[in-house]
Amino acid sequence: MDLSNMSVGDLRNLQEQIKQEMKKREAQEVQKAREQILAIAQGVGLPLKDLLATAGRGNSTKGNSVAVRYRHPDNASQQWTGRGRQPKWVKEWVEGGKSLDKLRV
Questions:
Q1: Long-range CB contacts (within 8 A, 24+) of 30-35
Q2: For the chain, which residues make up each domain, given as ranges?
Q3: What are residue 104's DSSP bridge partners?
Q4: What count of other Cβ atoms lies within 10 Å of the Cβ of residue 72?
Q5: What is the pTM (predicted TM-score) of this model?
Q6: Contact 82, 73 (CB under 8 A)
Q7: How confident is the model over 18-39, as pLDDT tens digits?
């Protein structure tokens, strides 16, 4: 296709047609991929919801709980893993001149 002889209006029209065709084909590819995934799940006797529930987990530790490293001696419900910002009760404990090591589990 020789674009050099086309007017700017014709080129814009072509550009819009290309956008629409791209959207259409992408939707078709997504649908085809869904059908293939469903066929694979059915082929191994696995419900699709179970397959999707485990998708992307791999060896990731995201979502795994982290062990508590600090606990308030008077209120066991106040716990901290040692990650992220210190909770208010930990700040108050340290600002009161007490050692963070006394909270360690």
A1: none
A2: 8-54, 70-103
A3: 70
A4: 15
A5: 0.43
A6: no
A7: 999 999 999 999 999 988 988 8
